[in-house]
Design a protein that fits this description.
Layout lengths: L12 H12 L5 H8 L3 H10 L13 H6 L5 H16 L5 H51 L1
């Protein structure tokens, strides 16, 4: 692709932010989003899935955190990967490329576990907020009935 010719299928960070913002404004239909963004509905849907945003209208309130959390390794799985890499690092007769790869893996697992911990806290907070929203709606409904 030439630098002078724009690729209409390429997602700039601005276009991606615009798409996510539209979705946050409760535009849930991929066809509507596609028309607004001058894209194909399937392309819109796939892009939203890649950035971890729930696509389509849903009866229950699904959050971005829930959508992202499906494919994450657990702390235990991350630690098992770390233990395996550390064990391999102890073995003699490894070439420098293997050692470098294992060190990168160790660093990546440590960062992943730290980020996962923050994600878990975020998910718990999001769950509590959704429960509070539900309770507020119930209280508002009860208050309307009493009025």
């Amino acid at each position: 692709m030439s630098d002078n010719i724009p690729n209409k299928y390429y997602w700039t960070s601005e276009k991606q932010a615009e798409l996510v913002e539209l979705r946050k404004k409760s535009v849930t239909d991929p066809a509507v989003l596609a028309k607004e963004m001058s894209r194909q509905p399937l392309g819109i849907q796939r892009k939203l899935e890649r950035v971890g945003v729930v696509v389509g209208s849903q009866k229950s309130k699904t959050t971005t955190t829930v959508a992202l959390g499906k494919n994450l390794l657990t702390h235990e799985e991350a630690l098992k990967g770390l233990a395996m890499a550390l064990e391999l690092l102890r073995q003699p007769r490894q070439d420098s490329l293997e050692l470098q790869g294992l060190r990168i893996l160790v660093d990546a697992v440590q960062v992943y576990d730290s980020v996962l911990e923050k994600f878990v806290r975020w998910a718990e907070n999001e769950k509590r907020l959704l429960e509070m929203d539900k309770r507020i709606a119930e209280l508002q409904k009860a208050q309307k009935i009493q009025s």
